[in-house]
Structure prediction request, 227 residues.
Amino acid sequence: MQRAGSVLAASVTGAVIAMSLMGCSGTAPRTNAPKPSESASASTSASPSASASPSAGALTEPGADRRLGETATVEWAPKDGVDGKLSITVDKLESTSFKQTFSGWKLDEATLSRAPYFVRATIKNDGKTDLGGYDAPLWGLDGEGNLVEAAAFKEPFKPCDGKTFPKPFAPGTSVKTCLVMLVPDQGKLVGVSFRPYEEFDPITWESDPTPYAPPKPSGSPSASPTS
Prediction:
């Protein structure tokens, strides 16, 4: 994928395409993250109490199911020696198309074989550690139960930008984030998963995506009735 002469390099299950699913430069790796693959499957089993909302500050039980707009509070260590706590609210899953939102980008065949989706979330740093510069720890979940890692861009992608936390991302602050999920084989994104390491029983938000609608330009005149 190419735009304005810059190349966005990437690697997905051994195939080089124009976006990276391995994290962009300048961010720390998620050392305990599961490896995404077309055969990697995420468990969605839940305990009998998994659907109950946690009390403020309490950790959400592994295996919990959440609806869009509901919050999960989790412990998260993006790398050794960095211990964090996040409150994650998945706000929206959006379906889009390359024609609609990638205008001006040169797409290769490997990229075009995928289906693009956006995941919008609100994430609060509920711990005591600055987590600036790390990637939001959310994975897409397709209709076959496969994990999909968010694409990383080397330049801003206006329709959906914000995979990486800003610097600083201080305790007590919240950020709005958006992740681009490219689902293999034109598959469907059916949910989002927090799964910090492979053995973790994931916390999931499942929903049908809604069509992406670009924001209205600020200052646009409102329609008024005619006499």
Observations:
- The mean pLDDT is 79.
- The longest helix spans residues 98-101.
